[in-house]
Amino acid sequence: MTGLIIAPVLIPLTTAVFTTFTYRHPKFQSTLSFMGIVSLLIIALLLLIQVMDGNPLTLVFGAWAVPFGVQFRIDHTSALLVLVTALIGSASLLFLYSDTDSKPRHGLLLPLLHGLIAAICGAFCTGDLFNLYVWFEVLLICALGLFVLGERIDQYDAAFKYLILNLFGTLLLLIGVGTVYAMTGHLNFNALTQALTTMAPFHTVILLTILTLAFLIKCGAFPFFQWLPASYHTLPAPVLALFAGLLTKVGIYAVFRTMGGVFASATPILSEILGWIACATMVFGVLGAAYHWDMRRILAFHIISQVGYILLAIALGNEAGYTATLFYTVHHVFVKSNLFLIAAIIYRLTGGYDLRSIGGLYVSFPWVAILFLIPALSLVGIPPLSGFWAKLLILKQTIAMERNVWTITALFVSLLTMYSMVKIWMEAFWKPHPVAEWKPNTSRLTPAWIATGMLTLITLSISLNPEFVIAYAQQAVTTLRGY
Amino acid sequence: MIWIVSIVVWVTLTAGVYAILSRDILRTVIGMAILGSGVNLLLFVTGRLSSPLPPIVQTEELVLRDAANPLPQALVLTAIVISFALLCFALVLALRIIRDADTDDIQELRYAEPKQTDSMMPSYYEPETMQDRKASGHSSEGNKV
């Protein structure tokens, strides 16, 4: 039982250590990494089954009493997100075996990837505020390492901008954690939830503002999202899919946990402000996507826009809103990572990422068209795909709360998202290739097909049976407030 | 006393933010270090400046009385270690950028941005210029825009 709770962090960390030792032996390293991610997948499934029928699993390190020791607390939300992490991690690592924009293969790529996965799982499982800061920092350093592995000047540029802006975010988080400790004397989520119910509303608003600002920088909200389009497109494709799917979601999980759980007794003014920030995020993200022609830059801006939707769901403030948050997060992680991997496949089959230099994919590879259309239309929100259910859950609430500006913004942003996806469709698939005799090299693409096929199947199963995930999310919201 | 410390924290954080906003790469990294120090000082005084005694239980006692709060000190130690590691990385990254880009001006670092050929239209990738030769420096494929 103890092993099960600590496993989501321990397994990727152990894999990172072992893959570091074997960094000169790529085949052995790949095998170890594969074993590591499969073990994480099994553990994540076991955790989900364990948590689904009962109470959250808790473990206090060092056997200290609860408010003093660092606590790991795996409830429904954490278990679901750990499973999602394991699935995206395995898809990304599987994609690394293929020959699709996976260069350069540095010896330290796999250790850093597993360190990243360990940090993400740690952030999802922790029940202590300072521990959350530590996992954010581990996330930051592993991400930076992954940026600079290629030794290209644009990757250094991207890493520097990512470093400065995200470091400012983590320092702000540290200020927030220090202030929370100064005012309440607690760092444990459960203890904080109790202590904050008795505090003056003015003080809780200050604490929540500092913390939420830091997490908004981390998740790429307006006006703090500049690090994302400045840096993401310089990464190799499988790493990019992992970053795109998961890194911003850790920030969102933190906002979700603080606003929905720990600080649930705070006044609704911050939900209101978060709603308007979410609207601005949605609009600016999709307008940025509409401008660009490089597929990775387009999809990077779409991350921002979809993060806006999830923040809007959090800003709704009631149980239905939190259910929508979890459902949208799960839907978005799979769709976004899948889209980045498919963009890499398109790059391999047409020879470029820039839409103006490629084309003709519908004629040469019609199945790739279907593979692209499923996550793309899901992103837009076309029924019966998962995006439709996710947006429906949010819009039902905004209409019920009579938030007309938010509803119209969300719908308008969906329209512009469709413009983006149709642009990619028309440029990459519909129009003929500018080079008349383009012959793509399709060797070593099988792992890529398997990885993207797996993610597409997951999206389809969420789309055709959303009730399962929605019911789970509803159950997760009841355990959000602690214990 | 704690008011003096909070004014010091305020001044340090301001100095750190001002240095981060500078145009020189190394000043930005130094700004990060100053900001980290300011935040560490803030974390430290969350334990209040009431007692200077170390948190050691006296010989015949069973309970810790009247000592400094050890938890914020532990938090500060963790934060110092983390920011030290990040500062080392940032310095090496800054030096590598200065070496590879031949500049220490952050405004000159446009390598990750699309090349600006026209003020209105999105730029097109032309592989013959110095910027793109540097951008595709070490690896032959990947990031072919």
How many beta strands in the DSSP annotation of chain A? 2
Tally of alpha and pi helices of chain B: 4
* Shape, principal axes of CA atoms of chain A: globular
Structural class computed from helices and strand pairing of chain A: mainly alpha
Fraction of helical residues of chain B = 40-55%
Kindly state the mean pLDDT of chain B as a whole number? 82
Spatial strand arrangement across the major sheet of chain A: 1-2
Order of helices and strands of chain A: HHEEHHHHHHHHHHHHHHHHH
Bin the helical content of chain A. over 70%
The count of β-strands of chain B is 0
| Span of the ends, CA to CA of chain A | 17 Å
β content of chain B, as a range? under 5%
Radius of gyration of chain B: 24 Å
List keywords for this structure.
heterodimer; A: 483 residues; mainly alpha; two-stranded antiparallel sheet; 2 strands; B: 145 residues; 4 helices
Write a structural description.
The complex is a heterodimer of chains A (483) and B (145). Chain A is mainly α and 483 residues long. Chain A contains 19 helices and 2 strands. Chain A has a two-stranded antiparallel ribbon with strand order 1-2. The longest helix of chain A has 32 residues, at 153-184. The mean pLDDT of chain A is 92. Chain B has 145 residues and is mainly α. Chain B is 54% helix and 0% strand. At the A-B interface, helix 5 and helix 6 of A face helix 2 and helix 3 of B.
What is the structure about, briefly put?
With 483 residues, chain A is mainly alpha-helical. Chain A contains 19 helices and two strands.
